[in-house]
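Ticket #431: bound-state structure for s-citryldethia Coenzyme A.
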Amino acid sequence: MADNKKTATLEFGDTRVDLPMYSPTAGPDVIDISKLYAQAGVFTYDPGFTSTASCDSTITYIDGIKGELLHRGYPIDQLAEKSHYLEVCYLLLYGELPSAAQLEAFENRVTRHTMVHEQMHNFFRGFRRDAHPMATMVGVVGAMSAFYHDSLDINDPDQREVASVRMIAKLPTIAAMAYKYSIGQPFIYPRNDLDYSANFLQMCFAVPAEDYEVNPILSRAMDRILTLHADHEQNASTSTVRLAGSSGANPFACIAAGIACLWGPSHGGANQACLEMLKEIGTPDRIPEFIARAKDKEDPFRLMGFGHRVYKNFDPRAKVMKQSADEVLDLLGVEDNPVLQVAKELEAAALADPYFADKKLFPNVDFYSGIILEAMGFPTSMFTPIFALSRTVGWISQWKEMLGDPGQKIGRPRQLYLGETMRNYVDVEDR
Ligand code: SDX
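RESOLUTION: The complex was predicted; output attached.
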């Protein structure tokens, strides 16, 4: 825990309470209210956790004003340009960039865990073919705890490590299987001669009937997408994983909970919702209609891929994603992609509109990712599963950090109760 040289004083009525304050290495000071109820008999109230730090962490830091994202201190734009996903996984898990030998050993470990238990294939056959791949992933990842009994004990560091590597290695295989099942094609096994992202692409797009050559530019673009989505402080799905883990639930159950939370359109489901919105807009002349709807308080419609709880500036990931979108579409000869055209004109129109400027609503990571994924050949239903397989390392790193905290206890928030006070039961004949 950080040192507390400062104190905050809370006074109300006859009550005066001194609360310790801690200063972080970056970001705002925090006031420790953990003893507030015991000392003053009151709770704090912050339903969306807009002003609440749920934990201390050394993994990722976001500066929403500067539009900065650091993983263990390294800026995301440098990692996206100079590193690659599995190296970022190592950084998030162990805190430092690996040596060449450490990286090779880690990549070999992950590569040799990419296959899933053959009997897990049966799970998929129980789903409808038109099931959303996220429904399949929630089910299959949760069911991993029915197979990998030698990595369930969260109190055993070795088992935590094996479970971590297994999930990083197997999520792409499971996501690819969910995709193949949804289109009625046979599952494609992982290949140990391919790197992580190339392997994922071949498991998704190869067919047994012919050889499949991974396009290195698409593989690099996929790797960059995975790198950009790897971790993001205490977002909704990461907080879900931490809360599930705080009860001692097994690692596979915790990650399945994270996948479920990520699915929501306000969170990881926004990439699918954003592309569907861009297609619904269809042509640049309809942009004003949708901007007016987004501004209309009576209309629940929101501009998907815009806005963020923390970023009140450009999401640094969106900048890298936008550059990647241009490269991929240029490579595929679809640089005049109408959806990308609408996206660019929508972005320009929104950023020029006082409503979005005043509320500091900028494109987020989900605004451009869908355009790249669709250009690669993925259906919109696969966008969030790809976000989930990337974020698995972030969830696991945060889960491990929580379990390693000696002060860790089960998360159990209180409430502001506004319901009925005690009243006696009334027999039905007297109602
Ligand atoms: C992710 O937390 C993370 O780090 C998440 C994430 C990660 O990597 O884990 O970054 C991934 O989830 C990115 C966000 C993807 N979601 C979307 O793109 C969906 C569209 N965006 C919105 O739903 C919204 O911006 C949120 C959910 C992202 C953030 O919502 P907040 O912080 O709760 O903000 P808010 O709803 O209180 O909005 C503030 C104001 C409101 O207007 P007023 O009530 O003040 O008048 O801004 C308006 C909102 O109506 N607003 C929007 C808007 N987003 C917010 N208006 C129109 N379009 C939008 N997209």
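RESOLUTION NOTES: The longest helix spans residues 157-182.
TICKET STATUS: resolved
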